[in-house]
Amino acid sequence: MTRVVGVRFKTAGKVYYFDPGPLRVKVGSRVVVETARGVELGEVIVRPKEVPDELVTQPLKRVLRIATDEDLAVWRSNASRKREAFKLCQERIASHGLPMKLVDVEYTFDNSKVIFYFTAEKRVDFRELVKDLAQRFRSRIELRQIGVRDEAKILGGYGICGRPLCCATWITEFDPVSIRHAKEQNLSLNPGKISGVCGRLKCCLRFEADTYREIKSELPKVGDTVTTPRGSGKVVDVLIMRESVLVQLSESGERVEVTAEELKRSGKQPVGA
């Protein structure tokens, strides 16, 4: 078994695991850790715990120390410098006439590198821009092209549901989303209704899919004959969000909505099917 602690560097960012060593860290602690790209400051999200050795990617980097006031001051300073760096980079992009959109700027904690995140429809030759920025910042420069979903995660905003974007608040990694998820949920295939602010299929189509499948498994299918409190009939529609079905009664021809619970009490299994 290996003792690890989970650390996150950005809101809704991926959680990485480190060796806490003898340090007594707890959830919410700010810590300075050694990463593949240098020393970074993050927040403890998962308390120290023991995990099987085979689940740990070696070599496991260490937590160097619990962040001091000086460390936090450096972190805040880097955050404030982002605005100036962002503005300068935008000016240089325009000067070079490059077809790219700057999204975010990040200083590494030890100030050894400045990372610029951008989107572009095509591959961009930014070699001259990198040289220009290196001369102005006197630091290593990295330009990293990201996708539109990553852009939405960084910039944030509100979805058509009226809530803050899931990707910017709690989703740590993007799972593949396909049109099949929309079909399974009986949604309109109108792109304007099933696409997020990023222009891609909404993430909620994916993470709600299991719930929809579970609900559908408890309901009969269209065409099944079922017994309801008002008699038997044929299912003509499945109302997943209401956890019910629309049944056309055999005797009267009337259509009634029947919940999953009512079907269970009456005998949900199709009759004569």
Short description:
This protein has 273 residues and is α+β, with helices and mostly antiparallel strands. It has 4 domains: 66 residues, no CATH class; 68 residues, GMP Synthetase, Chain A, domain 3, CATH 3.30.300; 57 residues, no CATH class; 48 residues, SH3 type barrels (Roll). The protein has 9 helices and 12 strands.
Structural notes for this entry:
The protein is an alpha+beta fold. It has helices at residues 69-96, 127-137, 148-155, 166-169, 179-184, 191-194, 204-207, 209-217, 260-266, and strands at residues 2-8, 15-18, 30-35, 38-51, 63-66, 101-107, 113-119, 140-145, 225-228, 231-239, 244-249, 255-259. The chain has four domains: 2-67, no CATH class; 79-146, 2-Layer Sandwich (GMP Synthetase, Chain A, domain 3), CATH 3.30.300.20; 151-207, no CATH class; 219-266, SH3 type barrels. Strands 2-1-4-3-5 form a five-stranded antiparallel beta sheet. The chain has a four-stranded antiparallel beta sheet with strand order 9-10-11-12. Helix 1 (69-96) crosses helix 2. The longest helix is centred in the first third of the chain and has 28 residues, at 69-96. The protein starts with a strand and ends in a 7-residue tail after the last helix. The relative contact order is 0.08. The mean pLDDT is 90.
